Amino acid sequence: MDFKTNQDTICAIATPVGEGGIGIIRISGPEAVGIAQQLFRPTTSTLSLKSHRLYHGWILDPSTRQRVDEVLLSYMAAPRTYTREDVVEINCHSGYAVLERILELAIRAGARLAEPGEFTRRAFLSGRIDLSQAEAIIDVIHARSEKSLALASRHLSGDLRDRILQWREVLLQFQALTEASIDFSEDLEDASSDSHLAISIQDLDKQVIAPLKELLDHFERGRVLREGITLVLVGKPNVGKSSLLNALLGKDRAIVTPVPGTTRDVIEETFLLSGILVRILDTAGIRHSPDEIESIGIERTLRSVEDADVVLWLMDQSRPLTEEDDTIYASISSSRHMLLLNKHDLPPAFSMEEAVEKYPSAAGAMELSALNSSDIERLREQLSESFLKQPLESCNATLISNLRQRDCLERAMDALLRGKELLLAGGYGELVTEEIHLARQQLESVLGWNEDEDLLDRIFSQFCIGK
Ligand code: GDP
Ligand code: ZN
């Protein structure tokens, strides 16, 4: 479907069903006012609706003249609206039956049920927002932590777009320069004697390549703010993994028992640490086992260790180290890990020094008791300090928030570096221009310029209906 030319009028329930005391039906498109006039009877005898006003009244079923619900209706005339089209919003008493009834009446009056994200897609197609902002709206809707919300809001304000437009401007100037040199290349004796061009290579470096590189380097931090980090708890049975998980979550999520091997499957939970979402997996122990169910659990453990940002290796300090600890060490030593010596309240069977000496890559070891709340607080601080400090520091910088944006920017970077190399090798002309052109196109792709329908479908289908 071509959304640009076929501007019919769409409608949807714009609020989550069953939540809050009020529900909103949003109608957008050329027929929005006409549809509203068919369904709505204002309390006062106003016949024509004025833009950006709120009206009190009733929704009537036009076929029966029956009152459906008492509502507040707002009308916003194009173009100062979310979609840049005429928009009518009907605020009614929530409850699914009422919302669905009004939606049905709007459809009967000539609107079409909106597809997921279609309102935002129209805002994008009308040029009100760029694609990085549309993606930010998805992020705001899906944001589960304070920090990911902050990141999304910054994108929504057009932070990334502003920088990209700046770089694009430099590339356009540069392109004009190199094109000029193609035209006059016969008059030039030596490319390097062209001082204009020499200056602009430096400009390209300083104004585009360097800041773009910095942005790409920070991608990982953006990912942490957006998606959070994943911790995996490993350790022998009965060392206190489930107890620690519960203490971090502050509730009784995993079953804690004095019998070894109870946590056979991988349990996943999330909690907030310094405003960042932390996924934590409690795993079955890593050990050789004849028990089939337990073996499956162990396999899953090994797989989650591979995916983890940080492995928390928990030991019971009141019991001696065994061969099993060597097995665990072998399977986690190539991952980023932290050693936790639990049950510090009991008499120790070995010291922290002994453990660190035996397993040297386990940096940042810490003694604690999972049953002691001030120890848990200390652990939270340590985790935040060790693994979240960098992402938190870059909280106010512009960041890339998804893979699509990163891929475009990486391709732009590759093209720029190829172009620069050609220039430094003394060559200029069409090849350079082509690379600069390619880089510019990739920058524009981040904003959704020249994007095809398939990509837009993929992005906007992540929205829910009504957004
Ligand atoms: P898991 O098998 O590693 O998940 O271990 P659990 O969390 O099920 O704990 C096994 C046993 O150790 C339970 O009886 C816990 O109450 C106990 N436990 C856990 N942490 C501590 C601790 O710090 N000190 C003491 N004394 N007991 C603990
Ligand atoms: Zn457990």
Automatic annotation (TrEMBL):
It comes from the Bacteria. Keywords: Cytoplasm, GTP-binding, Hydrolase, Magnesium, Metal-binding, Nucleotide-binding, Potassium, tRNA processing. HAMAP family: GTPase_MnmE. Homodimer. Heterotetramer of two MnmE and two MnmG subunits. CDD domains: trmE, TrmE_N. GTP binds at residues 238-243, 257-263, 282-285. One of its GO terms (biological process) is tRNA methylation. Pfam families: MMR_HSR1, MnmE_helical, TrmE_N. Its cofactor is K(+). PROSITE patterns: G_TRME. One of its GO terms (molecular function) is GTPase activity. Binds 1 potassium ion per subunit. Its EC number is 3.6.-.-. It is found in: Cytoplasm. The keyword Cell membrane does not apply. Belongs to the TRAFAC class TrmE-Era-EngA-EngB-Septin-like GTPase superfamily. TrmE GTPase family. It is an enzyme of class 3 (hydrolase). Mg(2+) binds at residues 242, 263. The lineage of its organism: Bacteria, Pseudomonadati, Thermodesulfobacteriota, Syntrophobacteria, Syntrophobacterales. K(+) binds at residues 238, 257, 259, 262. (6S)-5-formyl-5,6,7,8-tetrahydrofolate binds at residues 26, 89, 128, 467. Residues 228-388 form the TrmE-type G domain. GO terms for cellular component: cytosol. Exhibits a very high intrinsic GTPase hydrolysis rate. Involved in the addition of a carboxymethylaminomethyl (cmnm) group at the wobble position (U34) of certain tRNAs, forming tRNA-cmnm(5)s(2)U34. This is tRNA modification GTPase MnmE.
